[in-house]
Amino acid sequence: MVDGAQRLIAEGHGIDFGMVSVPTDNAAADQVIASATSWRRYQLDGRHNWFSVKTDQATFVSEVDVENRYSQVLGQIPQYDSAGNLRAFEDASLTHDPFNQIATITANGVTTEIHRDGLGRIVGATDSLGRNVAWGYHGTARVATFETGGSASGSIRVLVPGGTIDQTLFTIQDGAITYLHQGRDNSPHVAMTGMGSVAEVYQYTAYGQRDVLDSSGSPVSEGVLDISFQGRPHLPLNPASVEMADFRHRTYLPTLGRFTSLDPIGILAGSNRYAFESILRGRRQAPPSVAFV
Hints:
- This protein is mostly beta strands.
- It has helices at residues 2-11, 26-34, 277-280; strands at residues 16-17, 20-21, 40-44, 50-55, 59-61, 63-64, 70-72, 79-80, 86-89, 92-96, 102-107, 110-116, 122-127, 132-138, 141-148, 155-161, 168-173, 176-182, 188-193, 198-204, 210-214, 245-247, 250-253, 258-259.
- The protein has a single domain (29-280), classed as RHS repeat-associated core, CATH 2.180.10.10.
């Protein structure tokens, strides 16, 4: 039953999962997707660095050093620390702990501190505005979040996992259910209300940068979900404009198409220890409306 539920939800059909009816409105979602025109095309060098990035508005040429660190990309100048961790990009300043995991994020006058347990999992975050977030787990699956000090203060959100790793079937918060319809890699593509209407539609570039559209097809700056590329959650209380996805022991920046730190397995990771290429092979130029579908 679980395998069938996963397959049908991924294909966008309504099913009964236990006592839960998963609604769909494929026509409405398709109309929203068709209204989006944003796209990106990537040219890579022999080490899987971006040589150039072409969007519907401009073309950006990248510069990279012998250690695969960008000195210029997307019109920005990234900065790295002595351990090779990304230290600054766009409006974000980052620090890393001794395990090369992100410890703090500073942007727009706000600093967020990320808390982890002994397994390296994110268990919460606090920021300089007095907000606090806690994450709860069942094994490796994140099943609950709790926030205090912000607009959602005191609100618990329950995440119901699917049968595969990083799959979330639906969420429940303040009595409201949000159903997720996902691609084969568990990236959510449509969020639907308990009444069966489209709440938001998500599109991704080939490297997972997300565009969020409301039910009318208009872009919105921040989605209702903190679940994004490949079903991974965003870093909590992130004050920066750039999305950062938690991939357990490393953080992934879809905007850059790479991790913020080096692969700890060293040269066994290949010629580029920042790259996400092994997973994205053959999908470098996929338009956002069909990427990973």
